[in-house]
Specification:
59% of the residues lie in helices and 2% in strands. It contains 22 helices and two strands. It has helices at residues 24-33, 36-39, 59-84, 91-99, 101-110, 121-133, 135-138, 144-151, 155-164, 179-184, 212-221, 240-261, 267-280, 285-294, 298-323, 325-330, 337-344, 346-359, 363-387, 396-402, 416-428, 432-442; strands at 226-229, 232-234. This is Deoxyguanosinetriphosphate triphosphohydrolase.
């Protein structure tokens, strides 16, 4: 039975298992919490510019909330699997699904954004565009597959690298997470050349060539269904759908709440959109109305409705997962859980349309995306030409540029591809503030000694 063979406590780095009070999957969660890559998310843009006088979500608070939703989804599905497939499960599997699936989903949700650069999606676009705009000079230095990685830079693939790559001077295996958790964040389990719009598991790509062997090891250990060997394509792992649903639930709703706190969306618009979704679920609207009658604070009213909406979306995602469980296991489901629900629910469609028009197109959001794009692009342009030059050909300004790089990001004995990935590691790992400060310094906008 496939359910007995899609999880493992094997982790990167090949370290022996220790007997500790925590399970291996709880240790994954803790390792992510204490990792520097996760901490840096506190100063990476989710949607709205940071910092500000009004508390809005950053990548870290978003990831914590996604993890909370993911834990609920994992717990409920674990109970469902144990109840409905008890005769097919061995003792280890029963224990895993009942007591540890929620830990795996929570951990995967926690780290799903660690590969995202500063400034939201504009940071991703800047990195990909840098190589696209410099194709004539740069493309000949890389293989076809390496070039595809660079010109299609993707935060999901970068997350696998951040979590598994061994940097100079650091331990083997990166964060050393279990393969079960790593499989849970692989929304697009294919290499860059296999990208295909309109195909859910190939919309983007999931790993760089440098981490290909690691990903193949993960895929084998959790028995991913192989679709193609050349190029490498796998079907999604069953856990991915829950991680994706948790993320979709949070950003669809929380962005609206943030926009309300910032005054971009009126209280009436936000309340009406949330209330209509609650009403569409045939929930006890009288109880909701009675609660709202007590709450006079606008932010508190929106927070209450947000909680009710998220609860409704969790319940619907669980039901859709159960209904499509066979397709999920055999890799034939072709829509995200929330997209299936959205296609049947006009209220969620209206929330999405409203968000695109009023939130994601707002001037403040567009300004930070433009600024972030330029900052990230210029930082790459400062380092990449220098690192690609042979040591004997580097001018003094090349040497000075590379002195700004911490040693763990310098792969002087590696290939051009590995050298460039080192630069991308440095730049994509920056927080919004660090990237902006460094940009201003190297451009001469801010001059002076800072520590």
């Amino acid at each position: 039975m496939i359910l007995n063979s899609i999880f493992t406590n094997q982790r990167t780095g090949n370290h022996p298992q220790n007997i500790v009070s925590r399970t291996d999957f709880q240790r994954d969660f803790d390792r992510i919490i204490f990792s520097s890559a996760f901490r840096r998310l506190q100063n990476k843009t989710q949607v709205f510019p940071l910092p500000g006088s009004v508390f809005v979500h950053n990548r870290l608070t978003h990831s914590l909330e996604v993890s909370s939703v993911g834990r609920s989804l994992g717990s409920a599905i674990g109970e469902f699997i144990v109840k409905d497939f008890e005769k097919d499960l061995n003792d280890d599997s029963k224990n895993f699904y009942q007591h540890n699936l929620h830990n795996v989903i929570a951990a995967a949700c926690l780290c799903h954004d660690v590969g995202n650069p500063a400034f939201g999606h504009s940071g991703e676009d800047a990195i990909a565009s840098y190589f696209d705009k410099n194709e004539k000079d740069l493309k000949p230095k890389f293989s076809e597959k390496e070039w595809a990685d660079l010109v299609n830079f993707e935060g999901n693939a970068n997350a696998i690298r951040v979590l598994t790559n061994r940097q100079n001077g650091k331990d083997e295996g990166g964060t050393q997470l279990t393969f079960s958790t790593l499989a849970g964040i692989a929304k697009y389990p294919c290499e860059a050349l296999a990208k295909q719009k309109g195909t859910i598991h190939r919309k983007k790509f999931g790993f760089f060539q440098n981490e290909k062997e690691t990903f193949l090891q993960v895929a084998q250990s959790v028995n991913l269904i192989r679709e193609s060997s050349e190029p490498v394509i796998f079907k999604r792992h069953p856990f991915v759908w829950l991680v994706e649903a948790a993320d979709d639930i949070c950003y669809n709703i929380i962005d609206m709440e943030d926009a309300h706190r910032l005054g971009i969306v009126s209280t009436s618009d936000c309340e009406n959109l949330f209330f209509e979704l609650i009403k569409s679920e045939n929930q006890n609207t009288k109880r909701v109305e009675d609660k709202l009658a007590i709450l006079t604070n606008a932010n508190e009213r929106i927070s209450y409705l947000r909680a009710k909406v998220i609860n409704a979306l969790i319940n619907n995602s669980l039901e859709i997962y159960r209904q499509n469980f066979d397709q999920i296991l055999n890799g034939t489901l072709d829509q995200a859980l929330l997209d299936i629900y959205k296609s049947e629910n006009k209220s969620l469609q209206e929330i999405e349309s409203f968000s695109i028009e009023k939130i994601y197109g707002h001037k403040a959001v567009v300004e930070i995306e433009n600024a972030g794009y330029n900052v990230m692009y210029e930082l790459l342009d400062h380092f990449i030409p220098s690192v690609l030059k042979a040591k004997t050909e580097r001018k003094s300004y090349d040497k000075m540029a590379l002195k700004l790089l911490p040693n763990q990001f310098l792969y002087e004995d590696g290939t051009d591809y590995q050298k460039v990935l080192g630069i991308i590691d440095f730049v994509s790992g920056m927080t919004d503030n660090f990237a902006t400060d460094l940009y201003r310094k190297i451009k001469g906008i801010d001059i002076g000694m800072t520590m």
